[in-house]
Design goal:
By secondary structure, the chain is mainly alpha-helical. Helix content is 78%, strand content 0%.
Length: 120
């Protein structure tokens, strides 16, 4: 499996990652670190407890990591949650809608981990 095939399997945007990281070797290095990123388990836990501070902080961090790695769909969903819980912003989503987005990110992350393991 090539790095581009990995991105296709994950639903990522390889070209965006290349624009940001500039060198395929860096993309490879950082995508391999994703499965061990502690932000995702912390985000899942915050979603269970609906901890607004932890949801904001972890979603914001996921948005940054995923944007840099070209994982656009995860970054967009994380951005939605980040804005929902940004201090000073009024809530627009129900708890059930937030939970659905948390579940989507968790599912996408698990898929990415499986595909990265296949890639390695």
């Amino acid at each position: 499996m090539t790095l581009q095939e990995l991105y296709q399997a994950m639903g990522g945007d390889y070209n965006q990652a290349l624009r940001i990281l500039r060198v395929e070797k860096l993309i490879d290095k950082h995508i391999r670190k994703l499965p061990n990123n502690k932000i995702f388990p912390a985000f899942a836990e915050a979603g269970k407890s609906m901890d607004s501070v932890a949801l904001f902080e972890n979603a914001h961090a996921i948005k940054g990591v995923c944007s840099n790695l070209g994982l656009v769909q995860m970054a967009e969903i994380a951005s939605d949650i980040s804005e929902e819980f940004r201090p000073g912003n009024p809530r627009k989503m129900t708890d059930a809608e937030v939970q659905e987005k948390v579940t989507r990110i968790n599912d996408m992350f698990e898929n990415a981990v499986r595909e990265i393991q296949n890639y390695e």
